[in-house]
Amino acid sequence: MKYAAKLGNVIQENFEKANATARAEYELDYKEWKIVAKRNPVDAGNPPKKPKYPVLFIPGNSSASAIYWLLDETSGKAIICETEADSIAGAIKQDWGNFSHLLRCAFHHEPIAMSRKGDDLYLRIEHPAVSVLLTGTPDQVPRLIGSSDDGLCSRFLFYCYNQGLNWIDQTPCSDCIDYSAHFYKLGYEVARIKKQLDGGGYLFSLTFEQFKTLNESFNKKLSQIKMFEGQGAGSAVMRLGLIAFRIAMILTVLRQKDELTGKSNLECSDEDFNTAMALADVYFEHSMVMYSLLPKQSKAELSPKFDNSTPN
Q1: What DSSP assignment string belongs to 271-306?
Q2: How far apart are CA 133 and CA 251, in angstroms?
Q3: What is the pLDDT of residues 254-265, one digit of tens each?
């Protein structure tokens, strides 16, 4: 996973270079404005506007207000990527870092807002798009997600595995892959794809037959679990249907990455659709494993509340 994160390093570095240039220009303009304002406030006019400083990666241990601010700087799009789930779990449990609501809204790209009276600050992000990638041990998950009925649970994909106690040969070899260099190089291609997508308008779609298969598959999954796993697991199945659609969309973009020439329609191939559905089947099984490990809310806790996290 730490190597996969390097796919975004080129984008992050491009942001940092552009930010450094914009910051230097702003500071120079502001310095010149202060000189003029000191001599003749009337002629100085308004101070130069501070530019945005976008980033791709947001630290998982950031405060909620810092995440809102960084998302505002970068048009609502960012990634949180941590090899230790506790880094974000610890922040979410604090009053200053509780951004669970932000993550739940961002999953569906619903508007999020923050205001602080003391700073006279108001931020509103209309269409947030936040990806979160975490690794950790099973006992770290309850510290991030309180119970199987927590709406945050159904917004994550889970993949559980036992690494085993096998020693890996550490002897250097001439034909071994340097994963750091390999994934960093792929990052240039990812940056190119992002630039192409940012510059055009694309419409992704499934065929009628693919939609039929998706509907039948997830209706069957819902029937399998709703009798014994509860409302939370039902929410996970319905959101997994949306995630499967998104996986198909990503695979389609990767397959057609050399044909992104502006406004166009991207139709999913059967191969990519079947791959997305096969992945969804795996994630469904692993999600059910995690639901069995997470604590359940008591009936007393559930009775006065309504589950507003279940999608239509």
Answers
A1: HHHHHHHHHHHHHHHHHHHHHHHSPPPPHHHHTT--
A2: 18
A3: 999 988 877 688
Both structure tokens of 25: 């220009």
Residue position matching structure tokens 């510059």? 199
Structure tokens at 295: 């604590």
DSSP β-bridge partners for residue 78: 130
What is d(CA 40, CA 200) in angstroms, rounded to the nearest whole number? 46
The answer to whether 140 and 89 have CB atoms below 8 angstroms apart is yes
Please report, for residues 17, 82, 132, the alpha-carbon distance to residue 162 in angstroms, rounded to integers and kept in the order given. Answer: 41, 19, 22
pLDDT recorded at residue 229? 65
Q: What is the pLDDT of residue 308?
A: 47
Q: Give the predicted TM-score (pTM) of the model.
A: 0.85
Cβ proximity of 101 and 93 under 8 Å? no
Q: What is the pLDDT of residues 159-176, one digit of tens each?
A: 998 878 889 888 888 888
**Amino acid letter, 266:** L
Q: Is 28 exposed, middle or buried (0-12, 13-18, 19+ CB in 10 A)?
A: exposed
Amino acid (one-letter) located at 112:
I
Helical ranges in the chain per DSSP H: 9-39, 41-44, 64-73, 86-92, 100-107, 141-144, 179-198, 208-225, 231-255, 270-293, 299-302
Q: How far is CA 29 from CA 26, 46, 54, 160, in A?
A: 5, 12, 20, 53
pLDDT (tens digit per residue) in 28-41: 999 999 988 888 87
Whose tokens are 């304002």? That residue is 37
Angle at 204 between CA 57 and CA 5, to 5 degrees: 20
For residue 144, give every residue at least 6 positions away whose Cβ sits within 8 Å of its Cβ, in sequence order, or none. 85, 88, 89, 92, 134, 152
